[in-house]
Amino acid sequence: MTYTKEAIKAVTFVRDAIHSPQDVRHFMDIGRPAYTVTATINGKEIARSNRALKVKEVGRGVYDPVLYFVREDVDMSALEATDKTTHCPLKGDTTYFDLNLDGSQQQDAAWSYTQTIDDAGVLKDLIAFDNTCVQIVEHTAS
Questions:
Q1: I need a labelling partner for 104 at 20 to 30 A (CA). Which of 7, 43, 66, 141 fits?
Q2: pLDDT, tens only, 23-59
């Protein structure tokens, strides 16, 4: 079933959320943190940005927030595209990257939405990291 934008607005409890037209229970909120965010592995910084986007998503569950980095703020020389791809009905199609750093490799440690759906276009070509192998730190003001 596909829902109209009017039907989605009628059922949402989250203002300005982006909803899947196939399932109004699948939605996300995208914001820009007002602080610097870093990504490190084994103590080595591979990304630093004050332009990151933070995605909070609800689908089959409530997912942990994911931070997306502008490619210019990522050490892209440490990433190598793989053949793995996935599809999210809310965001689009991804490409995955292996992380190669100082002789160690983490498979599928990062991803990027190369084809996006409608309102998720702001995520196109940004880089997100798997937080099970990359440490993401939000440097909030104290």
A1: 66
A2: 878 899 999 999 999 999 988 999 999 999 999 999 8
Classified by CATH at the fold level, domain 5-139 comes out as 2.170.150
pTM of the model: 0.89
d(C-alpha 47, C-alpha 61), whole Å: 28
pLDDT in tens, 101-112: 888 899 999 999
Name the β-bridge partners of 74: 47
Domain ranges of the chain: 5-139
Amino acid at position 76, single letter: M
126 CA to centre of own chain: 7
Structure-block tokens of residue 81:
């595209």
